[in-house]
Design goal:
The protein is of the alpha+beta class. Helices cover about 50% and strands about 15% of the residues. It has 3 domains: about 5-90, no CATH class; about 125-235, Butyryl-CoA Dehydrogenase, subunit A, domain 2 (Beta Barrel), CATH 2.40.110.10; about 250-390, Butyryl-CoA Dehydrogenase, subunit A, domain 3 (Up-down Bundle), CATH 1.20.140.
Length: about 400
């Protein structure tokens, strides 16, 4: 393929579209567009990231020295949105969007050399151990304890709502290494293999009948101190940096673009777009999505100057969650009486050319209710913005 950096925006998008037509597997695309889960099926996420990696596009936002593309943030955004509109699933963000940037910022040279190439090639599949049964949005209240024993930490406790822990090779987690001082001061950031003795995973099935979430238990789990990122008791600094990328790393835009594709497709097939009231609501949602897109561009421009997403990531996360929920609600309305929560459904024996969209509409609606909680609840984002704007 020709050097994309020399192309105009339109030619850049056309080149990406041509590549997707030739390289995006139909089965992965259909599972993603017709499924209800918030995240890509692990096997599909791994396979798709490796296809992207073979082209050098697994992490366009990474610096070239670590295997990124060297594209500016505008091109990175155009690439992500073009992929989403074509029905390509997102790669699992815990690797390229979370632990990757954290390692680049805070990792030792040995940690970078060991883990970054494996994150890029999806040789390691990562999950995030933040929330606990007694500390979700109040992350500083976490109680999973890591006690130093020579060159190891001994970890006891539990993490909950852990996406894809059942499929992951590694977890990055926040653990309490001190109970002195304010809660934030006693937290450390640890990486650990998921096959470590004493670690167990219990599935949590969602209201949309998907297995994405889990509870993870630690029973005298021993982890080498060398797998800590940053200084002991300074994990809160690392965690805040990671959360800016989780909330503002722009993959909410990809989810929204995909959900808009589903909405337009189903509204056209079902005839819902012939109703003036429905059409007005759909147009309003599309305008809101475009507004979010413009705000994301400003944030990405700041990142292109060498900065990180900053508190503005909270605004992107807040609005992205809200608009996604509106879009999936409209999709369920377009499905009409077919949008009935169901057990696994045999679409091969069902009538209608768009039944896969219809029968998953309600499940997708219920799954997206979690968007205003996951990654920090909307109330938390509003508090962050209030402190920023009002100086509270």
């Amino acid at each position: 393929m020709q050097d994309l950096a020399t192309l105009t925006d339109d030619a850049f998008i056309a080149a990406i579209q041509d590549w997707l037509t030739a390289n995006l597997p139909d089965d992965i695309r259909e599972r993603w567009l017709n499924g209800s889960a918030l995240f890509t099926v692990p096997q599909d996420a791994i396979r798709w990231q490796r296809i992207l990696h073979s082209q050098g596009w697994a992490a366009p936002h990474w610096p070239e020295e670590y295997g990124g593309t060297g594209w500016d943030v505008r091109r990175q955004h155009l690439f992500e949105m073009t992929c989403a509109k074509a029905g390509a699933p997102p790669v699992m963000a815990t690797g390229t969007h979370m632990i990757g940037p954290v390692l680049m910022k805070f990792g030792t040279p040995e940690q970078k050399a060991r883990f970054l190439p494996r994150v890029l090639g999806c040789d390691d599949y990562w999950c995030q151990g933040y929330s606990e049964p007694g500390s979700g949005s109040d992350l500083a209240a976490l109680s999973t304890r890591a006690v130093r024993d020579g060159d190891e930490y001994v970890i006891n406790g539990s993490k909950i709502w852990t996406s894809h822990a059942h499929a992951a090779d590694w977890m990055f987690a926040l653990v309490r290494t001190s109970t002195e001082g304010k809660p934030q001061a006693g937290i450390s950031f640890i990486m650990l293999p998921m096959d470590t003795p004493g670690l167990s995973v219990r599935p949590l099935i969602t209201i949309g009948n998907d297995h994405e979430l889990n509870q993870v238990f630690f029973d005298d789990v021993r982890v080498p101190v060398s797998l800590r990122i940053g200084e002991e008791n300074d994990g809160w600094t690392v965690a805040k940096y990671l959360l800016e990328f989780e909330r503002g790393g722009n993959f909410y835009g990809g989810w929204l673009a995909t959900n808009l594709v589903r909405l337009r497709r189903l509204a056209g097939l079902s005839g819902a777009d012939q109703d003036p009231a429905f059409r007005a609501r759909m147009a309003a949602a599309e305008i809101e999505a475009e507004t979010l897109h413009m705000g994301s561009q400003r944030m990405l421009s700041a990142m292109s100057a060498g900065g990180n997403p900053g508190p503005e990531s909270s605004a992107a996360k807040l609005r992205g969650s809200e608009i996604n929920q509106v879009v999936t609600e409209l999709t369920m309305m377009a499905a009409g009486e077919f949008a009935i929560p169901h057990a696994p459904f045999d679409t091969l024996n069902a009538p209608g050319p768009h039944l896969a969209d219809e029968v998953e509409a309600a499940n997708r609606y219920f799954e997206n209710r979690a968007m205003s909680i996951m990654g920090g609840s909307s109330e938390v984002q509003k508090n962050i913005l209030a402190k920023l704007v009002l100086g509270l």
